[in-house]
Amino acid sequence: MVEDDDPSAIRSIALSPEDAVDAYIYSRENPGDAVLRVTPPFHGRMRARIHVYRVDDTELTGAVHLSPADVIADDVVADYPDLESALENADADEADRVRERHAEAVDDWQARAREAIADSVTLETDDGPHRIELKPLG
């Protein structure tokens, strides 16, 4: 690996809490995956941006994908409102109210999740695990 392509050069990644939350919600509610993407050349301080894909191209691009579930605190991720379970127990007359309550619950969850960005994350590199700091923007 060329030095600029080695993710172990990264010490910290700046990211938008909104991007992390939006990526998490997108992956839960839509086909395809949303991640926080960091692209080479790699250096000490990097910036992650939201990236949506259906086919993982990291082998081609050398990019690093951070799962939004890894950058949001575990307890907050676990509290994401589950629409499918709520709809299972609702009859046809209640479905619209369940969807409205779910939308409100997701809004509340988003506010909590934006404040729950982890302090660090571990990247898997050719040399083994590499811990990096996360720096929320804003």
Automatic annotation (TrEMBL):
Pfam families: DUF8009 (PF26033). Residues 3-138 form the DUF8009 domain. This is DUF8009 domain-containing protein. It comes from Natrinema salsiterrestre. The lineage of its organism: Archaea, Methanobacteriati, Methanobacteriota, Stenosarchaea group, Halobacteria.
